[in-house]
Amino acid sequence: MATERTLVLFKPDAVQRRLVGELYSRFERKGLKVVGLKLLKVTPELSKQHYAEHVSKPFYPMLEEFITSGPIVALCLEGPEAVSVVRGMMGPTNGRAAAPGTIRGDFGVSRQMNLVHGSDSTDASAREIAIYFKPEELVSYEPTLSGWVCASDEK
Ligand code: IDP
Ligand code: MG
Asked: How do residues 91-135 score in pLDDT, each as one tens digit?
């Protein structure tokens, strides 16, 4: 089992709707370790870097307008298979199609304003974490409760 790091963003809609505490709490309760955390505003340049795969798509101008429209919270989360665990907690892109119990299913009805970003592969997470965090901004530590989160052969 691989311990992975993944990039999570609470998008401007999550911050403006005052859902940051709620969303942070979900990842905390899941047992994922927060190793990086910051509040920032995404610039158009940063948006193009992050969403490089989408820049040429018809929806990109609206996506850039949205993601740069207010502060976001960026997190680097760590845990066993963290990339797919987080994607599962988020639900599919469109909040209208996302199942109850997922973040997008519980809090949203939009395809664009879907509250969270999560890396979709370990290649993507490595690239995206480096966009949002300097190496020294990521904190290594052993949480006191880690022995109660999963067995030693799952770490
Ligand atoms: P994901 O966030 O579930 O990985 P992607 O397809 O990578 O979804 O799209 C990135 C983001 O772009 C989505 O989270 C959403 O905010 C926005 N987006 C995706 N598809 C559309 C669309 O068809 N119209 C408007 N916005 C979209
Ligand atoms: Mg994506």
From this structure: 999 999 999 999 999 999 999 999 999 999 999 999 999 999 999
Buried b (16+ CB within 10 A) or exposed e, 90-129: bbeeebeebeeebbbbbbbeeebbbbbbbbeebeebeebb
CA nearest ligand 1 atom 8, residue = 93
Closest CA to 77 of 116, 47, 19: 116
Quote the pTM value: 0.97
Task: Provide the Cα torsion 45, 50, 52, 56; round to 10°.
Answer: -70
Please report, in angstroms and rounded to a whole number, the separation of the first and last CA atoms in the chain: 7
Residue 95 CA to residue 60 CA, distance in Å, equals 18
Q: Any residues with Cβ below 6 Å from ligand 1, and which? A: 54, 59, 62-63, 93, 111-112, 114, 117, 120
Residue 99 dihedral angles phi and psi, to the nearest 5°: -70, 145
